[in-house]
Amino acid sequence: MKTAKDYMEAANEAVPTMDSADAIAIHAEGEGTFIDVRDSADIAESGTIKGANRVPRGMIEFNADPAMEDLFNPIFKDKSAPYYLVCGAGGQAALAGKTMTEMGFTNVTNIGGFPGWKDAGGPTES
Q1: Which positions fall inside the Rhodanese domain (predicted)?
Q2: Burial of 119 (0-12, 13-18, 19+ CB in 10 A)
Q3: pTM check: above 0.90
Q4: Structural domains of the chain, with CATH
């Protein structure tokens, strides 16, 4: 039987991480697609990365699969493009990133939690 720790270890092995300062520099260059995988209530409470797409972790499979015509989100059209995932503390981003890699995405990075982004001076929005 798997535990939450098992899932997190597997996700952290599958998805590279990046610190906030490096992610902020990439964001400033306008590179990649930034995705906040928290639910809307968490984002409403704290804000998110400026310009980040909002795709809750529970919707990744549906939004990233073109076969799900009514739910597919075109931000996922290029499986080789760089995607940068953020959440509250890094766990949900790691798990969502592992799902994306299992779906064939080849350039997914966990940039950790939004508080780290905000504390490092990254641009935010409500």
Answers
A1: 28-126
A2: exposed
A3: yes
A4: 4-125 (3.40.250.10)
